[in-house]
Amino acid sequence: MTTYPAPAPGSAGRSLQQQRARAAFWFLAPMLVMLAFVAAWPLFRSIMLSFTDASADTIFNGNWEWVGFQNYVEARVRSSGEVRWRGVLVDPKWWNAVWNTVRFSVMSVTLETLLGLLVALVLNAEFRGRAIVRAAVLVPWAIPTIVSAKMWGWMLNDQYGIINDMLMNLGFIASPIAWTARPDTAMIAVLIVDVWKTTPFMALLILAGLQMVPRDMYEAARLDGIHPMRVFWRVTLPLIRPAIMVAVIFRLLDALRIFDLIYVLTPRSEGTITMSVISFQNIREFGKYAEGSAQSSILFAIIAVFVALYIWLGKVDLSGERSR
Q: What are the mean pLDDT values of the chain's consecutive 10-residue runs (324 residues total)?
């Protein structure tokens, strides 16, 4: 029997790898070009304008000047002694928006993770009609945010809202509450709507992790007589921790740039205004393109830090190779 020498494995492997890299590049090229037009250029333009004095009167004719970091750190004082805050980093309104954003993000992501875990555990159980229940749970997440905000705005209205009517009939409140107008209840109203809408998203991601847990482990634990709560803490939770981490990071990045829900539900409330909303107001409503661009640039930097943390923390070994 005649045998022929096999090609050198090193050169063949490198050739195959190069072919795959070229194919991947051509698949990614259209997306990269599109991102350059819809994301990279606007981002570059926004960062550039943050170092100018551009306003609604000068943005289109180019009669603006470079001012360096004035939009970030300078605080101008009028002749009367009154401080006119201009730099973003010395503006109390900006730091109020930062505090509102962080508070909203932490509270909403925490509640949605806990509730999403409970919903995922229920949906992972075996019962009749499970497919229908899974589809029904996703309905709030499928509704556009603008529609959800307007719908809940009507329900929370102090004049004709059904929420106040239900609470008064149950005896929990004595008079109607303007949920979205009062400073002490505006954030609660926003959290209620956001948790209602986004919990299904968290449940869906966690449920995907639960589906990967081998059933043999549960059968072995049941035969050994181990309590279900102990199985959850010692078996289920460690195995779905990577899925929970991914869900939390993605949801946190989304919560940090929250805009539409806040802008529609509580557009003028100082207790809920976020970094995205105050930046939009300065650019579109007040014509302060330079200051609004500086705020947008800072928001981008904050989200970039969280993305870097996600890339670092997301290196979870699911195969167990590192532990060998």
A: 52 76 85 84 87 81 81 65 66 90 93 93 83 86 90 90 90 88 89 94 90 78 76 82 86 90 88 91 86 90 82 55 46
**Residue 66 — φ and ψ, nearest 5°?**
-75, 130
Domain ranges, ordered by start, for the chain: 103-273
Q: Report the CATH number of the 103-273 domain.
A: 1.10.3720.10
Sign of the CA dihedral with 147 first, then 151, 154, and 160 last: positive
Distance CA 150, CA 193 (A): 10
For 151, 159, 181, 198, 285, the CA distances from 165, given in Å and listed in that order, are 16, 9, 17, 25, 35
C-alpha–C-alpha distance, residues 81 and 262, integer Å: 35
Q: Is 225 left (phi over 0), alpha (psi -120 to 50) or beta?
A: left
